[in-house]
Amino acid sequence: MVTTSRSEQVSAAFVKLAETLVADYHVLDLLQTLVEETVSLLDAAAVGLLLADPHGELQVVASTNEESRLVEMLQLQAGAGPCVECFKTGVAITIDSIDSMGPRWPEFQAAALSQGFRSIHAVPLRVRDRTIGAMGLFGRDVGALTAEDSAIGQALADVATIGLLHERTIREGTLINDQLQRALTGRVLVEQAKGVISQTKNVDLDEAFNMIRRYSRSHHLGLQDTARKIVSGSLTL
User: Fold this and answer.
1) pLDDT on residue 9
2) What are the beta bridge partners of residue 58?
3) Residue 62 and residue 31 in contact, taking contact as beta carbons nearer than 8 Å
4) Could you tell me if 125 and 135 are in contact, meaning their C-beta atoms sit under 8 angstroms apart?
5) Which CATH number applies to 30-165?
6) Are 156 and 37 contacting, i.e. CB atoms less than 8 angstroms apart?
7) Percent of the chain topping pLDDT 90
8) Residue range 120-159, pLDDT digits in tens
């Protein structure tokens, strides 16, 4: 049986992220790859990603399961929580015991515990002095990430952010809002497609997304394009 070292796994994750940065890449595929590689590589049970829209409002654009997506959405509704605070400050936030975190974010605490999460590590998506989002790494057990895992998680987020706001975009001050809006529009289509698949195939939303993701990968088709075909009825999985 072939085994790989931790360093090889980390290297492979960065390569996979880099492979999404082709000429016509879609940011939604980049961000979904980010959360999937993060949960696979690090000691996290689930990952959710918030991204600021052109008006600076946070939106959920990627997640590894419905539980993390729900907690992120409830954070946004409350306007407070570790990922929201991480975005505002540009600083990573760790809560190693959500049960005993105190009264700071009661809505987040209730939502996270109701979904079975006991810890969270939030990392900013940032380039220089600009923060464009935050990624939440949720744990089923109490305890903080190791220093190594924290560093790797931040590095993965940094690489994805650079891919989203690459040097030419930053230097010229153009295309940033277009890129962010494309990600948000694509996520809406994916959520609609998940609903279609869930109803037609009688599966839960997590399995519906897995079906969409598998088709997208096997046919070398972007998530947004796959979702659009499903929603329009031109594609039946």
Assistant:
1) 84
2) 52
3) yes
4) yes
5) 3.30.450.40
6) yes
7) 60
8) 999 999 988 889 999 999 999 999 999 999 999 999 998 8
Q: Spell out the domain ranges in the chain.
A: 30-165
For CA atoms 15, 208, 77, 41, the dihedral sign is negative
pLDDT (tens digit per residue) in 4-36: 787 888 888 877 777 766 655 677 888 888 999
CA–CA separation, 217 and 233 (whole Å)? 19
Per-residue tokens: 27: 């940011």
* Burial annotation 221-234 (CB, 10 A radius, 16+ → b, else e): bbbbbbbbbbbeee
